[in-house]
Amino acid sequence: MSQHIFFSPEVDFPLPFKRQALALTYAEWPTAFSGPPNDDEPLNAPEREPHCIAWIENGEVLSYTGVQFITLSHDGKQYRAAGISGMLTAPQARHRGLGLKVLRKAAQLMQSQAADISVFTCDPPLAVFYAAGGWEVLGNTPLIGGSRERPMRSDDFGKLSLIRCFTDHGESIRPNLDGQAIWLDLGERQLW
Ligand SMILES: CC(C)(COP(=O)(O)OP(=O)(O)OC[C@H]1O[C@@H](n2cnc3c(N)ncnc32)[C@H](O)[C@@H]1OP(=O)(O)O)[C@@H](O)C(=O)NCCC(=O)NCCS
Q1: From ligand 1's centre to the CA of 107, what distance in Å?
Q2: What CATH number does residue 125 fall under?
Q3: 115-128 confidence digits (pLDDT tens)
Q4: What's the whole-model pTM score?
Q5: What are the coiled-coil residue ranges (predicted)?
Q6: Which domain holds residue 15?
Q7: DSSP string, 39-72
Q8: Count of domains forming the chain
Q9: Residues 77-102: pLDDT tens digits?
């Protein structure tokens, strides 16, 4: 059996892998699409330096995540921040450790791309999964996506915030977190 992890900027993600990642994403979150996705549909927001990571077995994408980057402003400082977007494993391949392989590669990629921190959200049961990958739950600190006019607070959706710091500058955000929401300024209806 051939198996390997593949990662690249989204623009270089081979079309057969992209098609499979889109199909898996559509099967998991159909309401995020207006209809079955076509080849031109991006997996991630093109303006956020999107990268794709996939675990491939015999040419089949079995686990996938997107990684995106933004500049985040918090309490007067700016941070290069990375998010996980659309993490999933094909239903028939779950609980084989493939998601964790992809997640750990995502952390390496974030570091290699000079991220100070990584912040994103998850449903509470998945905190165990992300903790195993190296993230920690940020209690009392919601992330705010959407726009300034139409903010989307993660705790309004029952989501937990996750954080990981990669640099000393990233670590310096910690004293300014408790109770202060982090604005991501991602744009209308987006929370990574
Ligand atoms: C979350 C997801 C990506 C995990 O992928 P996976 O390849 O099955 O994960 P792993 O096999 O690497 O899991 C490692 C450990 O994380 C934890 N874990 C994984 N999935 C979990 C889940 N759904 N609930 C709670 N804990 C989970 C378990 O401790 C697991 O170890 P175990 O299999 O020995 O119990 C997968 O369940 C999935 O695609 N879910 C649907 C989409 C989704 O919700 N994505 C997350 C968006 S934030």
Answers
A1: 17
A2: 3.40.630.30
A3: 999 999 999 999 99
A4: 0.96
A5: none
A6: 3-183
A7: TTS-SS-GGG--EEEEEEETTEEEEEEEEEEEEE
A8: 1
A9: 999 999 999 999 999 999 999 999 99
